[in-house]
Design the sequence.
């Protein structure tokens, strides 16, 4: 079994990832790396990947990092997230590397987003982990 298949087995299906081309590259120990190819359908009128695309990639990477430590029967949701856009993305592969900063029910995380090894965005997020049967 490939690593990609193993990661997909450990994380639920996310339909928007198919639309955006997002894939898990690494997952474990409170860290995750996801990639997304440049696609003109994800750009703003100026040919730059729309900020929401980079935001979604960073948010997804954080979710996968949390999934690697949250355990069975848990769900996790973004409480808040902030992103700084540092450089425009006009082609290539975009990669988000996320890590959990502290474990607990309320989980702070960070994600760095790269395009061809250049830092293009920095995100800070806070998630909440809940039991699958509770949602509060």
Sequence:
């Amino acid at each position: 079994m490939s690593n990609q298949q193993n990661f997909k087995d450990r994380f639920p299906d996310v339909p928007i990832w198919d639309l955006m081309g997002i894939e898990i590259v690494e997952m474990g120990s409170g860290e995750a790396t996801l990639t997304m190819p440049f696609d003109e359908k994800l750009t703003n009128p100026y040919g730059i990947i729309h900020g929401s695309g980079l935001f979604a990639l960073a948010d997804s990477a954080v979710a996968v990092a949390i999934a690697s430590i949250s355990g069975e029967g848990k769900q996790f949701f973004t409480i808040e997230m902030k992103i700084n856009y540092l450089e425009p993305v006009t082609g290539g592969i975009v990669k988000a590397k996320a890590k959990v900063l502290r474990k607990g029910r309320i989980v702070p995380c960070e994600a760095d987003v790269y395009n061809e090894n250049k830092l293009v965005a920095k995100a800070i997020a806070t998630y909440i982990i809940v039991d699958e049967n509770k949602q509060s």
In short: The radius of gyration is 15 Å. The longest helix spans residues 51-70. The longest strand covers residues 118-131. The domain at 3-131 is CATH 3.10.129.10 (Thiol Ester Dehydrase; Chain A).
